[in-house]
Amino acid sequence: MWMAGGGSKGGTIYGETCDFSYNIVKDPVHIRDFHATVLRLLGIDHQRFAYRHQGLDQRLTGVEKAEVIRDLIA
User: Which residues contact 51 (CB under 8 A, 6 or more apart)?
Assistant: First the structure.
């Protein structure tokens, strides 16, 4: 994943995969954590940002706990 501007820290490499880019060997990031980080960079609180779908409140980061990756924010 590549990110630029908008408050993301420039020149940062976060995480590492094996030589074949198949297995994560350092600093794994779940997609809901990445979504929470991008929403934070957009100025949106991912825990409060919800929408109604089939009578239930849904969040873009899902129902499990999502963490903002502080090392990616400038």
Answer: 57, 58
